[in-house]
């Protein structure tokens, strides 16, 4: 299982630019990068009132959706590096099932579910705020995925970039790999009790998963 933002693709910087563009269109002052980083990893609609206090979320939501569509069309958002796609292919060839579990809303992952998306033949499922009852860091964020697949926590590994990802996985009894590629967080930002391993870049996940598989045999 893999997180999306700053794990499979590097999105914080692009999201920061996108959200500030929407704020400018609304006539609001830009947020600082530090304010954005402070709530990065939280669901967008929950984080925005803190990123831009007093914002009219009813006005923000449709503007964000249209701006996001433009960023996607321009290749400025959710670009998955070729080496990360190659890593997914290695995992699949080794017999692994690859799924996404993200804090995004359903409309924020809709494009990833398109039949012509690069993930179409690589991902066997996507779980998000629209089809799960609980969000990270609640360990129950994995409930629907586990129930749907019939997998046990001991059969799973979750790769993510945030302390909340680690807490959710650890609480669910799932091995957690911290991906530090984005540079947004360091390993000492995580509670070591919930981190099974860490990687500097996403492709290193392939070897770590294989190592974990051997230790479980």
From TrEMBL:
GO molecular function, one term: phosphoglycolate phosphatase activity
Cellular component per GO, a single term: cytosol
Annotated GO biological process: DNA repair
Superkingdom of source: Bacteria
Classification via InterPro entries: HAD-like_hydrolase_sf, HAD-like_sf, HAD_2, HAD_sf, PGP-like_dom2
Gene3D superfamilies documented for this protein: HAD superfamily/HAD-like, Putative phosphatase, domain 2
Pfam families: HAD_2
Protein name (database record): Phosphoglycolate phosphatase
Species assigned in the record: Actinoplanes philippinensis
């Amino acid at each position: 299982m893999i997180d999306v933002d700053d794990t499979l693709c590097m999105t914080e910087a692009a999201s920061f630019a996108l959200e500030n563009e929407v704020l400018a269109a609304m006539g609001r002052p830009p947020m600082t990068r530090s304010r954005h980083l402070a709530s990065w990893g939280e669901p967008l609609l929950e984080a925005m009132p803190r990123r831009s206090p007093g914002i009219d979320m009813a006005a923000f939501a449709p503007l964000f959706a249209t701006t996001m569509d433009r960023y996607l069309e321009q290749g400025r958002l959710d670009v998955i590096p070729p080496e990360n796609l190659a890593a997914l292919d290695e995992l699949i060839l080794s017999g692994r099932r690859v799924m996404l579990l993200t804090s995004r809303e359903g409309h924020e992952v809709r494009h990833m579910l398109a039949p012509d998306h690069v993930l179409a033949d690589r991902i066997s499922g996507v779980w998000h705020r629209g089809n799960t009852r609980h969000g990270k860091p609640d360990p129950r964020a994995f409930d629907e995925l586990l129930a749907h697949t019939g997998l046990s926590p001991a059969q799973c590994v979750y790769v993510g970039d945030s302390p909340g990802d680690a807490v959710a996985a650890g609480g669910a009894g799932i091995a957690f790999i911290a991906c530090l590629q984005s540079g947004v967080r360091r390993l000492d930002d995580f509670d070591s009790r919930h981190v099974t391993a860490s990687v500097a870049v996403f492709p290193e996940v392939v070897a770590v998963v294989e190592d974990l598989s051997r230790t479980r045999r």
